[in-house]
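Lecture notes, part 5. Sequence design as translation. It can be helpful to think of inverse folding as translation between two languages: the language of shapes and the language of residues. The source text, in structure tokens, appears below.
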């Protein structure tokens, strides 16, 4: 009994102490916020507050007090859930048992509901000495959706009072209190036990495909020391009328991961009715209390005035897009169109730049071109596949699209759409932007004029140096020579380039190749690379426009068109001039040595010898040459090339021969030789390999020489690289016989300074007897005739007419025979010696008596 009386007295004293503390009866208990408190002035001059920091504490005992530090409500179908936080302060040195105190909520309608600690705080039973601790309670308050005017009564046990409950005091939530953070206000809280500063930064309204969507920006700064990952809270959009919509993380904010001290804006989206009033909306955050099986409010924010988003971006304007809290600039930098096969062929340069401070991987955006008539045409690109941009890194993406010309080409839009959610989570996917496409016809490039081209590798001055159309067998070869100059202040590495050539609507891609002079790939500031784009074309095809496209692995490098006609003839170098091949490792000078014509009965063969002198300091495989003969009236005859397949030594010489069979009516006096360097697979071809084209063509005016036959064979005749001198010749026979022995004393030299291909010349020896009969023998250098001085060649010639021969002379005539046609080199008359026979002792005077040296011919000739 004594103990109960003591407890009762203590309760009375406590009640008395509280009654002396001001501020427990309604709003008068609240001291208006001032200084740093967040405020908002309404039209009625009522100051709205979002904090209870200035609410006076309530004494529960001499050294124990409590303060209402937070109150918020979350609408649910089973009744709205109020949570409120009481902060207890024990200034004594001994602990206080909370079992002696409890609280009840009084709604504006008069309902009284006892508060229960949430699961996370339900185990707290005492407040230790010198400790301040906050405990959150909840209560199902039914229909009320606002905390304004709610009362929180604090109670202690009093066994003399009805129900043993003694009300100690009351906290009244002010009528101007906003549970939500005010517009623009930051709020410190905890997300997943990580301290953060948060703010609702934006509310955008999108209208797309007949639906309306709201997009909320939520800014989070991680104040903790560990990474903040998705805490699993639920996000809601609440209208001013109380409607609540579940928000889903936007695809652009797919990674909910915030590093310590990092600030990141996440975006959440939901679909709302088209008629919804979007003013005074709130962002609400709730989490599931697993023990209570209830969603409890965590935080709420008053959203700024909504802004209706427009997907359309003006031509040339920059669209700033948030990707994982980085701002990425997007811009349709340029566009151009040309007509082809009833379609407008568009090329675009699309610029993306990461303006953020961390690397960002862009989504695999889908792109399409949409016409004003409502048709959509896909733009195929792999550029966004795993495209990661470092901070401040910029990329230019080359795009192409084809739009039928029957549609308006000046009102097109490039639409950029994020990919659908990979996890089928039902995330709302909205367009990033609709970029207006400026209508611009593709510019026309002229030969020798420079155009500026910008791509991912830098900015270049591109010059079409020449455009040629030259023969290639029964086709033509279009050759576009380009110079690409680095016009930036940094060194640039060119990518591996492939090419496309188009002649009007004719796509020549299948035969197109790109040959880079000297395989240059690194350009210092101001340096240039020369390259040739070439392709086969029917020689009968007429066209008016040439399109040249260079591509690298990820897209287009450059594109240009020209209406300048291709050159079909070149200004020749003067006869006897030389020119140089400058390809790295294949440097050489080229000069005509000899050109002549072998005449036949119905055709003739043009034959030209060219010296190719290596200017390399090492043994090397010189360029494979290709050539055609061109007549004054523009006819071309492809030349057969005979070139050594062996490497040429340092400063060595190679003799290359060209020949072509032409009709006998062709005037060969003013021939030109078009010489190019054979290529295959985008590289210079080696001698002996097949070429699929040629580059760097030079025209040489030829000095066509007519060979004047020598009348003195001892002075020497030339069948390069051999020179033959007939020192003497004799023939003899025994009177009355049919066999004549021909002997030739000769000297043969060979110019070994030249490396040559297979030798295609033959030396034809013709013997004409006193009767006018001719006999021929084909001689081979190196076997029938050997190099050296005063060598002897003998052969036997037979004829029945020789039986009556008593003397006279014969003529030796020498021919250079090439591909079945001949040039007379010279001739000379020699005497025949007839030997009178001795007394016949046997029957052998009619025998063949061929005799020869080690190089003689032992085969008897017959009369022709």
């Amino acid at each position: 009994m004594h103990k109960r009386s003591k407890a009762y007295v203590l309760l009375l004293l406590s009640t008395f102490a509280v009654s002396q503390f001001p501020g427990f009866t309604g709003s008068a208990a609240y001291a208006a916020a001032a200084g740093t408190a967040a405020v908002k002035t309404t039209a009625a001059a009522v100051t709205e507050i979002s904090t209870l920091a200035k609410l006076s504490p309530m004494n529960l005992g001499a050294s124990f007090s409590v303060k209402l530090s937070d109150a918020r409500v979350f609408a649910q179908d089973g009744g709205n859930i109020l949570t409120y936080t009481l902060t207890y302060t024990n200034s004594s040195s001994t602990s206080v048992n909370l079992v002696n105190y409890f609280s009840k909520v009084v709604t504006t309608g008069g309902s009284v509901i006892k508060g229960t600690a949430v699961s996370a705080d339900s185990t707290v039973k005492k407040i230790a000495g010198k400790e301040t601790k906050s405990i959150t309670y909840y209560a199902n308050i039914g229909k009320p959706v606002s905390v304004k005017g709610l009362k929180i009564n604090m109670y202690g046990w009093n066994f003399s009072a009805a129900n043993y409950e003694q009300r100690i005091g009351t906290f009244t939530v002010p009528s101007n209190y906003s549970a939500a953070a005010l517009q623009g206000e930051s709020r410190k809280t905890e997300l997943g036990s990580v301290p953060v500063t948060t703010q609702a930064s934006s509310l955008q309204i999108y209208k797309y495909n007949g639906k309306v969507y709201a997009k909320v920006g939520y800014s989070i700064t991680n104040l903790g020391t560990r990474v903040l990952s998705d805490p699993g809270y639920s996000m809601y959009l609440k209208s001013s009328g109380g409607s609540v919509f579940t928000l889903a993380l936007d695809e652009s904010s797919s990674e909910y991961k915030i590093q310590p001290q990092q600030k990141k804006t996440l975006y959440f989206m939901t679909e709302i009715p088209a008629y919804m009033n979007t003013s005074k909306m709130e962002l609400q955050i709730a989490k599931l209390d697993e023990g209570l099986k209830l969603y409890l409010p965590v935080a709420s924010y008053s959203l700024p005035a909504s802004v209706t988003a427009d997907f359309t971006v003006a031509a040339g304007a920059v669209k700033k897009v948030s990707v994982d809290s980085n701002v990425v600039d997007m811009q349709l930098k340029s566009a151009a169109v040309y007509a082809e096969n009833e379609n407008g062929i568009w090329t675009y340069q699309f610029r993306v730049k990461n303006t953020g401070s961390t690397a960002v991987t862009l989504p695999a955006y889908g792109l399409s071109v949409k016409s004003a008539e409502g048709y959509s045409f896909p733009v195929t690109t792999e550029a966004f596949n795993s495209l990661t941009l470092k901070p401040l890194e910029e990329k230019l993406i080359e795009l192409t699209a084809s739009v039928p010309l029957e549609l308006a080409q000046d009102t097109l839009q490039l639409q950029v759409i994020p990919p659908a959610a990979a996890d089928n989570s039902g995330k709302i996917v909205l367009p990033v932007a609709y970029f207006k496409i400026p209508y611009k016809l593709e510019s026309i490039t002229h030969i020798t004029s420079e155009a500026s081209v910008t791509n991912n590798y830098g900015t270049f001055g591109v010059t079409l140096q020449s455009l040629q159309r030259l023969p290639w067998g029964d086709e033509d070869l279009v050759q576009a020579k380009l110079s690409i100059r680095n016009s930036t202040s940094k060194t640039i590495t060119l990518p591996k380039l492939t090419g496309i050539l188009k002649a009007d609507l004719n796509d020549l891609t299948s035969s197109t190749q790109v040959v880079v002079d000297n395989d240059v790939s690194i350009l210092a500031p101001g340096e240039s690379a020369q390259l040739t784009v070439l392709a086969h074309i029917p020689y009968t095809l007429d066209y008016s426009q040439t399109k040249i496209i260079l591509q690298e692995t990820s897209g287009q490098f450059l594109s240009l068109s020209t209406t300048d006609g291709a050159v079909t003839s070149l200004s020749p170098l003067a006869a006897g001039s030389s020119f140089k091949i400058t390809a790295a490792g294949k440097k050489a000078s080229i000069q005509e040595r000899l050109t002549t014509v072998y005449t036949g009965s119905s055709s003739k063969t043009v034959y030209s010898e060219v010296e190719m002198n290596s200017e390399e300091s090492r043994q090397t495989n010189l360029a494979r040459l290709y050539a055609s003969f061109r007549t004054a009236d523009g006819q071309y005859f492809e030349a057969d090339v005979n070139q050594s397949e062996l490497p040429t030594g340092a400063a060595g010489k190679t003799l290359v021969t060209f020949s072509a069979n032409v009709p006998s009516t062709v005037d060969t006096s003013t021939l030109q030789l078009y010489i190019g360097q054979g290529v295959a697979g985008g590289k210079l071809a080696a001698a002996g390999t097949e070429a699929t084209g040629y580059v760097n063509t030079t025209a040489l005016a030829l000095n066509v020489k007519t060979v004047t036959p020598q009348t003195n064979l001892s002075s020497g005749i030339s069948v390069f690289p051999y020179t033959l001198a007939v020192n003497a010749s004799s023939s003899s026979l025994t009177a009355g016989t049919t066999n004549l022995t021909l002997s030739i004393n000769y000297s043969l030299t060979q110019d070994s300074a030249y490396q040559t291909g297979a030798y295609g010349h033959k030396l034809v020896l013709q013997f004409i007897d006193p009767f006018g009969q001719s006999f021929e023998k084909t001689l081979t250098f190196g076997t029938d005739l050997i190099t050296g001085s005063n060598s002897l060649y003998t052969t036997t010639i037979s004829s029945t007419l020789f039986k009556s021969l008593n003397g006279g002379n014969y003529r030796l005539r020498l021919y250079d025979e090439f591909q079945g046609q001949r040039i007379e080199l010279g001739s000379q008359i020699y005497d025949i010696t007839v030997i009178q026979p001795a007394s016949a002792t046997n029957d052998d005077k009619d025998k063949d008596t061929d005799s020869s040296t080690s190089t003689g011919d032992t085969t008897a000739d017959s009369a022709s």
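The translated text above is only one of many valid answers, since several sequences can fold into similar shapes. The domain at 312-436 is CATH 2.60.40.1240 (Immunoglobulin-like).
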